[in-house]
Fold this sequence. Notes:
Elements: H1 2-14, H2 16-25, H3 32-37, H4 41-54, H5 60-69, H6 77-82
Helix pairs in contact: 1-2, 2-4
Amino acid sequence: MKASYRSQKKLIENKPEKFKKLAKNGNKHLHPWDRQFLQTDEQLEMMMTHLHEATRQSVDECIREPILLSKPWAFDMIKRCSNPC
Length: 85
């Protein structure tokens, strides 16, 4: 996963047009809705901005965040949302 994030970061920084082309054409493995999302330049720019910021300091955080989100939290989200403070 790190290698993938590193190569994406490098492409965004050095060859953004190539990244856009690859994102538009190399997405056959994605769900049709996701493929549709990656077809406009505006949406691709937004994704590139988000990915670049996410990897700005290190690609490690892009891997760490989903790991943290997949673990149990110290509170019950359903109770928290239904009982506002």
